[in-house]
Structure prediction request, 302 residues.
Amino acid sequence: MFSDSAEKLKHVLQVKSEIMRAAREYLRSRGFVEILPVILSRVTDPLHHETYDGTVDYYGRPYTLTKSMILHKQIALRTAPRIFAFSPNVRMEPEERAPLRRYLAEFVQLDLEVRGASRDEVIEIGEGLFVAVMRSVRENCAAELAALGRELPVPETPFDRITYQEAVARFGEDYDDPLSSSLSAPAWLIDFPRAVREFYDREDPARPGVLLDMDLIYPEGYGEALSGGEREHTLPHILRRLKQDGIPPERFSAYLRFVEEGLPASAGFGIGIERLTRYVCNLGHIKEARLFPKVPGVADAL
Ligand code: ASN
Prediction:
């Protein structure tokens, strides 16, 4: 359809720009304040999977590149009650992830956090945000969508919810792609077990071992859109979770100082902008969703 891949990219970037504009407008209209991202810090998200090390030396101390702003989001809530950032994340993924077609070593997530919120409350924000973005893109990027051959549906709310247990029972441990392919509208995957997630997602006090967290799964095989949940915010809980994950607390001492002073209870999530663009524009590979993509296993990218 495209004589030139630059022509296709031009449409994609136009849509992506509209996605970011609409998301900003939606969040600002609901009382969120935009904060600027942190890229270099003493602590970052430990993630639940291995990536290449992004550590740099500064004043003889190891500083790291942001894998997600989760810990900074919690601390930022001491200043403002509803925050978001378009946050560049550097996750230097191993080559094994390349065939999944949805990983980039450098991407941006729209990361938000709400003081005092429950999981249900941020799920509602996620649904409102998603629908607002779909509507705006349909309205303001009709020519681009037509050129990309995309008929973009606007899903009904509330979205369906599936528990992690149900997903594994139906599709096995590698549920991501088959679950996503089975969906005709986005759906929430909820209640991950403690062992498969990071220490900051809050354990349900009524169901030990089960977390009050969620992913949003795209339909049509596009896979995971978003991760989030309620947060652990008290020192005893955080120390216990770090211990369960075998993480020495000293590794997070710069963060734990703030936890000791007091963090608010909160919930939030982060949605990957390139993945959202890939879904909206119907792109086969996430590398088509941005300029200067860094795909796992490809050396020498600009
Ligand atoms: N941004 C996610 C969250 O808010 C964390 C992540 O990206 N791993 O939970």
About this structure: The first helix runs from residue 5 to 29. Residues 105 and 260 are 33 Å apart (CA to CA). The chain has a mean pLDDT of 96.
